[in-house]
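User: Here's a protein and a ligand (zinc ion). What would the complex look like?
Assistant: Let me lay out the input and then the predicted complex.
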Amino acid sequence: MRRQYAPFNGKRYILDKKTGVAHDLDNEVYDCKIRIIAYDKVDTADDIGEILKNPDFKVVCDHCIAKFG
Ligand SMILES: [Zn+2]
């Protein structure tokens, strides 16, 4: 579920810069654990391509991105 407040600002894709895991908030499930990501470790994008180019990116989330291709 997208979050309109900072640091998410309604963006679809987010990157946890601590773990390097990217999430799609439109397909978010409980196991994404978005709620435990520190706000100062969040990067956001409208386009997954921007996340993939982020130097902190490592993997896509198994729960919200991988299973949707
Ligand atoms: Zn996820």
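Summary: The chain has a mean pLDDT of 95.
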